Amino acid sequence: MVYETVIGLEIHAELKTKTKIFCSCSTEFGKKPNENTCPICLGIPGALPVLNEDVIKLAVKAGTALGCKINNYNKMDRKNYFYPDLTKNFQTSQYDIPMCGEGLVKFDFEGKEVKVRINRIHIEEDAGKLVHLEDEAYSLIDYNRCGVPLIEIVTEPDLRSPAEAAEFMRQLKGILEYAEVSDCRMEQGSIRCDANISIRPVGQEEYGTKVEIKNINSFREVQKALEREEKRQRELYQYGEEYKIKQETRRWDAAKAKTLPMRSKEEAHDYRYFPEPDLTPIIIQQEFIDETRANLPEMPAEKRQRFVRDYKIPQKDASIIIANKTLAHFYEDTVALGVDPKVVDNYILGDMLRLLNKKGLEPEDITMDPKNLAHLIQVIDEGKISKTAGKEVFAEMFDTNKSPDVIIEEKGLAQISSSDELEKLVDEVLKNNPQSIEDFKAGKKQAAGYLMGQVMKASKGQANPQIAKKMIDDKLAILV
Question: Where is 13: in which H helix or E strand?
Fold first, then answer.
């Protein structure tokens, strides 16, 4: 029997606010444990919440960017559960009236258009962070994250493969970044994903037993975790043991490359939702929604089309560049300085991405000034250094952000274009390679290429290749 995979995602994205959702504590990442806390986010009895208006604005912005319907009337609810990461034993969230719904994300994947419906987007507070110490009988808790504002984006089960799910996450990250809703830094926990996966026989309308996977912290791990769980479920079906697939929550263990059981899956009634009595309903005026929609920044799909149209670069290249907002801005800032867009494209997709990957960095970590890259391209075009030397200069700029001129001088990479200097090098090479000259006379034209290589070697790559090649060709023509 042939089975198909059915996947839906629940994405938590941290909103780009300076303070928490119900208090004035900072949301700054990396502070000492429990430093960004107060009686409200610590759930001290008697402390009352006040809703941060910026949370509403950013949630509406996210909803409009994802094509959602925005509900004018909203309320907050208490999601009750007992766990150390929330001291008040409930999470302030939204239940039956989410802020946004009925959205749609479309993207191309492996030659076909994928449509993923957004079921809902609601706002809520984040919980604290538990630190489980190895070989210790206790755990530590950092409450800095308590009360950090989140949106939870819940998709319909429209994804049909782990690879599709990972690509959807990339597309969603781009939309949220361009809408300036979240910085989406997965390494800091700004965007997190829980995945629901089941399988069913092809043609069957009813969904199979759903398993939720938690603890996924990167796009690559999203795909790996789903692939492993997909394999586990297919193996159970293969052996006729469908009943062994239980509706449960499992966690992804990246080190072991497997999903492990956590607990049986909770249903909504398990949380005993009820309206939050300490917060009044939220009324969002239609005028504000319309204004937000009209003032949305340029979205990734629009930017990709513009890059292809205006800069004449391939759509595949444009897709890679615009996938990260920082990278796209770096590209445009460099091109705006008057250099060839295709050359900038080559540097970013080649040297830039290679160095980022090699050093384990994100585009947000780039310190190089676009002005320096533009100047490097101009220096190469003017023949002051070779393209090979340009790669060395680029690598140094990536690490230090020094100007190309400083690096060229420090490393002695200036290209030799002086006719007198080059003629001395060429004459010396010809003198030391009589056999190559004889080979050329005998009709072996590749001998000229060998001699050119020797000139470049003798000059340590600094000879101007165009001038040197012409000089070699002219001298060989005379000898013949």
Answer: strand 3-14
